[in-house]
Design a protein that fits this description.
Elements lengths: L1 H10 L1 H21 L3 E8 L12 E7 L5 H68 L4 H36 L2 H4 L6 H4 L1
Antiparallel strand pairs: 1-2
Length: 193
Amino acid sequence: GKQLLDTAYSRSPERAQIHSLIAAAQYQKLSTSFSFFGGASIGGLVGSGSSNIGGGLAGSASFVLSPALFPQVQMAQLNVEQLNIQQRQIYLKISQMADSSLHSIQQAKGRVDMFTQAEADADLAFSNTLDSFTKKKSVDYSTLTLSAIAVQTATLNRVQAQMDLDAQRITMNRILISDEFHQIGRASYRERV
């Protein structure tokens, strides 16, 4: 449950993207918040008669407060809050997908078990019908054929259920970015050159 969800969320590319966006928005918020500080400088005149080293240096700094600064800071804060909401929505979406996939896997596993048992029962019934047909001659050919068709139908149902279970497992592996998908490394420009 929770561990599966945490694993799926920690591996999701959406999480990495939203974390990068949040970091950029927080940087933008700080940058905007302190944008009223101007540059600082040190300067001075060096004269030929000056004997005091550094005595002619003076520092200066500027501060610029603009009425537009406060709405900009508020907008930057709203951007961060909006991204945090999107991050929560991503977590909930992954949670829904993982829960749905787990439920589907459990159902598919139940169908595989049911159809495996049905196939075994149909195969046993066919063996008994075939034995009755060949040894006792108490069963006609159409009954034998119907019994063989029942085995084939049960086998097809089991195979279909197994394919459904395999598809559900692939979906879960993709959610978790595990198995083969997790081993695919990240490509970089340098690796391609």
